[in-house]
Amino acid sequence: MSDRVSEGAAPAVDVPAGLEGPHWDGEGVLAAPAPAKLNLFLHITGRRADGMHTLQTLFQFLDWGDTLHLTPTAQPVIERAATIPGIPEEEDLTLRAARLLAEHTGHDGGVRLCLEKRLPVGGGLGGGSSDAATVLLALNRLWGCGLSRAELAGLGAALGADIPVFIGGSAAWAEGVGERLSPVGELAEPWYLVVWPPGEGVSTRRAFADPALTRNHPEVTILDFSQGRCGNDFGPVVERLHPELVRIREWLDRNAPGPGRLTGSGACSFAECSDRAQAEALRALVPTEWSAAVARGRNRHPLADWAFATGREG
Ligand SMILES: C[C@](O)(CO)[C@H](O)COP(=O)(O)OP(=O)(O)OC[C@H]1O[C@@H](n2ccc(N)nc2=O)[C@H](O)[C@@H]1O
Ligand SMILES: Nc1ncnc2c1ncn2[C@@H]1O[C@H](COP(=O)(O)OP(=O)(O)OP(=O)(O)O)[C@@H](O)[C@H]1O
């Protein structure tokens, strides 16, 4: 077992984790990590004329995520090696990211993508966004496109609001519609227990569209966060749509040292633990109808330095 993370339907046996740094795992195949993110708090502060919501949130990465296996090819074909259940090819953010980068830069080669999916879809962990960001970061280097971090983040923003933070590479305070990012390097990196109802993803679009959503949260500062005055405005709305999330939050409130919190628009909730042993012990107590993972908070993305290093890839 990895020393970083365990996952699986509780109290299932730990499975090997997959968040190693980038490495060549076969002839010409790069394995690249796509970590999860947590929204340590999330307030919705307004709604723009175009319907998009302004928010304040604090992002931190987890040492847990998906792995992309990328095989660059000389032929100009961008394809995926396997289907992803529930995600048709035209919606697949990994393919869309690769095609966008090729179009934007005029790159004439191709790539074969194989996604090792671990993060629950619609979990509020930003899995699809992180997969897309990893494709952009990896191909920008493998294809020698030479886009700057800011250019790549701008490209990613066109595909999803959560993509720029993964490209930025640092835990960050976010404002605007999520694109105004200020790196925050000093956050503690605690062990978390993450719990979710298997197979019950939340639609972010639907949660944002709910008439009952609080949209006028007054602006806060990081001091408000550190003094425990921040929460997640999606809570009441998604708990009404997904009553199981009430039970999960109440379970975490009763059993975890810290309160249960929702990440993004759900469906995952998380609680901070004092160390890995405590998080693992708690995971063993999670009711078997839910899934759970133990993972550590991280302030740096595992590709943050590799992606913009000069010299030969690898
Ligand atoms: C909830 C968060 O995960 C918090 O980090 C993000 O704000 C959502 O990021 P995301 O999943 O990448 O969302 P996107 O795919 O960009 O947007 C999905 C839909 O959510 C709504 N949306 C999204 C972001 C935002 N600031 N305001 C919105 O109203 C829009 O209807 C949009 O069409
Ligand atoms: N490679 C992918 N992995 C996961 N979802 C994808 C992918 N490509 C496209 N999607 C679509 O993106 C949507 C959001 O999936 P994702 O797992 O990123 O949600 P999430 O964790 O709730 O995201 P967020 O916290 O950013 O709202 C799903 O409806 C899914 O169909």
CATH topology: Ribosomal Protein S5, domain 2
Rg (CA only):
19 Å
Uncertain spans, ≥5 residues at pLDDT below 50?
1-18
Largest sheet geometry: 12 strands, mixed
Bound molecules: 4-diphosphocytidyl-2-C-methyl-D-erythritol, adenosine-5'-triphosphate
Number of domains: 1
| Number of contiguous helices | 9
End-to-end separation in angstroms reads 25 Å
So what's the CATH class? Alpha Beta
Enzyme class: transferase
EC number: 2.7.1.148
Keywords: ATP-binding, Isoprene biosynthesis, Kinase, Nucleotide-binding, Transferase
Family: Belongs to the GHMP kinase family. IspE subfamily.
Sum this structure up briefly:
With 314 residues, the protein is an alpha+beta fold.
Please, could you describe this protein's structure?
This is 4-diphosphocytidyl-2-C-methyl-D-erythritol kinase. Catalyzes the phosphorylation of the position 2 hydroxy group of 4-diphosphocytidyl-2C-methyl-D-erythritol. InterPro entries: GHMP_kinase_C_dom (IPR013750), GHMP_kinase_C_sf (IPR036554), GHMP_kinase_N_dom (IPR006204), IspE (IPR004424), Ribosomal_Su5_D2-typ_SF (IPR020568), Ribsml_uS5_D2-typ_fold_subgr (IPR014721). The active site is at 37, 162. Keywords: ATP-binding, Isoprene biosynthesis, Kinase, Nucleotide-binding, Transferase. Strands 1, 2, 3, 4, 5, 6, 7, 8, 9, 10, 11 and 12 form a 12-stranded mixed beta sheet that branches. Helix 1 (93-105) packs parallel to helix 2 (127-142). This protein has a single domain (6-308), classed as Ribosomal Protein S5, domain 2. The model is unreliable at 1-18 (pLDDT under 50). Helix content is 26%, strand content 28%. The chain is α+β, with helices and mostly antiparallel strands. The protein has helices at 93-105, 127-142, 149-157, 163-168, 204-209, 222-226, 235-241, 244-255, 276-283; strands spanning 6-9, 23-26, 29-47, 53-73, 78-80, 110-116, 172-175, 180-183, 191-196, 261-262, 269-273, 291-298. The radius of gyration is 19 Å and the shape is globular. It binds 4-diphosphocytidyl-2-C-methyl-D-erythritol and adenosine-5'-triphosphate. Adenosine-5'-triphosphate binds next to helix 1 and helix 2. Adenosine-5'-triphosphate is lined by residues 84, 87, 91-94, 115, 121-129, 131, 162, 204, 264-265.
